[in-house]
């Protein structure tokens, strides 16, 4: 007779690890205010419910894939990554991480430290890999960074910045009054819009595709030989 039967309690016939006794579960697939730790320490996970947070890999990170004024949110408003429900947290692999794929006021982090990510929406931030980076692939007043340190990047919208690779750079591929830089240091570039500056590969230059200290003209080698 196992320990559970001895106590007159119903439970699993055999506990995990071959030990007999009553199992205590802190993870529930459905409901609210539930916690679970799949892989890591001090992590809470919720697959469906409210007031849950999760972190897949990293520390103190947030991300948002779609919405407005959200941190780590794939669908909804004012959310920080929520899979199913509102105010939920979960931690799959890491410490002090929160994530939500669908909901409100939820956060999530897929990999990195102190990073914010948002793939679509307004006033959102996201970071797919790196440290202290912000990234946003679509929306307004958003920042994104796909790889690097202390960089901002935005691939579509207005008043947005983006950086695909480098340090302290800003880039914007479409919009107005936006700075953008595809590669280099302390550079700004914008391929489409008004009142914008572009620098594809130089330092401290504005609206110049090749050269130094030039403005609003193409600095390219041109030769005339007669």
TrEMBL record:
Top-level taxonomy: Eukaryota, Metazoa, Chordata, Craniata, Vertebrata
Region named Disordered: 1-214
Biased composition (Basic and acidic residues): 167-179
Name of the protein described by the UniProt record: Uncharacterized protein
Polar residues bias spans: 34-66, 77-111, 120-129, 138-147, 156-165, 185-201
Top-level taxon of the source organism: Eukaryota
């Amino acid at each position: 007779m196992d320990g559970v039967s001895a106590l007159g309690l119903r439970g699993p016939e055999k506990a995990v690890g071959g030990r007999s006794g009553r199992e205590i579960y802190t993870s529930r697939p459905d409901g609210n205010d539930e916690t679970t730790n799949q892989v890591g320490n001090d992590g809470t996970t919720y697959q469906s419910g409210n007031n849950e947070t999760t972190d897949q890999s990293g520390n103190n990170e947030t991300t948002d894939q779609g919405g407005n004024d959200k941190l780590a949110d794939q669908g909804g408003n004012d959310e920080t990554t929520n899979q199913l429900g509102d105010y939920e947290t979960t931690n799959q692999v890491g410490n002090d991480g929160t994530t939500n794929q669908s909901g409100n006021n939820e956060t999530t982090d897929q990999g990195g430290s102190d990073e914010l990510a948002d793939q679509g929406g307004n006033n959102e931030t996201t970071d797919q890999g790196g440290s202290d980076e912000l990234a946003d692939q679509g929306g307004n007043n958003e920042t994104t960074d796909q790889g690097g340190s202390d960089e901002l990047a935005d691939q579509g919208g207005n008043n947005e910045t983006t950086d695909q690779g480098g340090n302290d750079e800003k880039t914007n591929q479409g919009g107005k009054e936006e700075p953008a830089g595809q590669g280099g240091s302390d550079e700004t570039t914008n391929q489409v819009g008004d009142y914008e500056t572009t620098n594809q590969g130089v330092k401290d230059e504005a609206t110049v595709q090749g050269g130094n200290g030039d403005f609003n003209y193409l600095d390219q080698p041109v030769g005339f030989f007669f």
